[in-house]
């Protein structure tokens, strides 16, 4: 079976979030299931620089005001198709925005991605006609639409929602320019509250929909969690699956991680002390090995519950904890964290921005990893924390609820707890969770068992890839 994966970013070539990690890791996992994946990606400068043996395989003609062609090659061990269209993608930095905000031609840029995917899906490339086209998030949301309205034989389609909050809408006047027929302008097509909805199109017109955890799949069918799309998702509940993400356990492996001062494993946790010490040194924390260090690797936003963290800061300090934060986001939250770090030198460390190596060190050196999200489709940082023995402390939402077993009294007694859950991203709930964490830290036997359970958790792509393989086969058998 062959699959064309369509995404706007892909790790390690270009990344702004978890979508890139999934798009980058899933092809190798699917290969173990006997499924060959080629990934289609826009030709951003960062991507083109990393292409190996790239060769043009299709002249795409003029697309939205400029010439384009399709390249085939490899990068980072992945088989790629890349759209070379400098007028659309020849921009350094963030793939979606420039200094003044979102690129105004994003509708055209990502409609072009979807149009090329549809052409490949319909056999434009000799020798490659995919059985399934798997489109990811709003940037690829028009792929099922172009295939649906073409009227020609088409492959099966899967549309994966990584975050329902980002929906990709543009003005209705662009319908014809984007190459969509008049019949697409309908609640049964791409129309969404008077605009063209890229995400809505994928949800409505794909053969099957997936999202990245079972709990999130349930949450988005509620009015509270559906963000205007709950009715559509309830209508398509039979075609909707929640499949947990995994992480690349070759990249995230404390036994051979070059970002750590020394390797460690669940069989030898004493060596983890070197990472704890290195983390304290990096952030200039007081060198107290008995003080519990809490890490945060996150977008600094309301969705991620970072305002609740700011409100809970006095309690964290009173509990003699240390805090290290890596991330960027809302300026008000950044300011609050900078002020807290200034008030508590040696207790709070802050790195505004993102650094992949530092993210690894935080996972390897923090005692606990805090994820207080208000909603979280899956979350990857808590999976990394499990792998590295940083006990995850998570809000009971989405994939966080599905991946962390709460250290309540019965779970601790049964020896199966892997972290701490709390009800919601409110300051009071977070403070209560931090107090529970402090109590567990004092009971070192219980802590060591929780840490060991966490590190034994299967956070790989093995099970998710098997679920995707089953889904693909179901689509083909039903066509």
Automatic annotation (TrEMBL):
InterPro entries, alphabetized: Glyco_trans_1, GS/SS, Starch_synth_cat_dom
The keyword Glycoprotein belongs to this UniProt entry's keyword annotation: no
GO molecular-function term, one example from the UniProt record: alpha-1,4-glucan glucosyltransferase (ADP-glucose donor) activity
Residues where ADP-alpha-D-glucose binds: 15
Alphabetical keyword list: Glycogen biosynthesis, Glycosyltransferase, Transferase
Biochemical pathway: Glycan biosynthesis; glycogen biosynthesis
CDD domains noted in UniProt: GT5_Glycogen_synthase_DULL1-like
Pfam families reported in the protein's UniProt record: Glyco_transf_5, Glycos_transf_1
Reaction catalyzed: [(1->4)-alpha-D-glucosyl](n) + ADP-alpha-D-glucose = [(1->4)-alpha-D-glucosyl](n+1) + ADP + H(+)
Top-level lineage group: Bacteria
Entries under Gene3D superfamilies matching the protein: Glycogen Phosphorylase B
Family to which this protein belongs: Belongs to the glycosyltransferase 1 family. Bacterial/plant glycogen synthase subfamily.
Role noted for this protein: Synthesizes alpha-1,4-glucan chains using ADP-glucose.
Protein name: Glycogen synthase
